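Batch manifest, entry 17 of 40.
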Amino acid sequence: MPLRQAVRHRTLTPVFVGSNPTGAVNKGDYVMKTYELFTTGIELDIAEKIQQRRYQLLIHSCIYYHLNQNIISDKQWDIWARELVSLQKQYPRISEKVTLYQYFKDWDASTGAFLPITEEWVIKIASRFTAVKQSKPIQKSVQKKPTNTKRRLF
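Output type: structure tokens
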């Protein structure tokens, strides 16, 4: 499928279709990319947002339920979840084509506990996030400026 002028210069991660949880849709050895599935820039933007929210909710659910940690607040998770449900209801045709559809098609945003949070690839990504969160920032040595203890009155 040829690229449309409106989306020609986008560099995107692939959007995968089908039942494979890691998502690859192969045409031979070729994986379809987001910009090849949608004909307008608006559809592409919606598909990207759906994909982003699905991955965010899946990874953060794994962090919370499987790794027993928390990086984002429950309030933030709820905001993302409601946004995803809204997008999927508003744009069902687009939603069906975006990766992880089979896990989110009837999802109601009530919990992430029943998403595929124990898949090996999900745990690897979630573990990377928690490792970054736990790593201590590098401290620079800062020299204090000498303070002048003498005060001038005039």
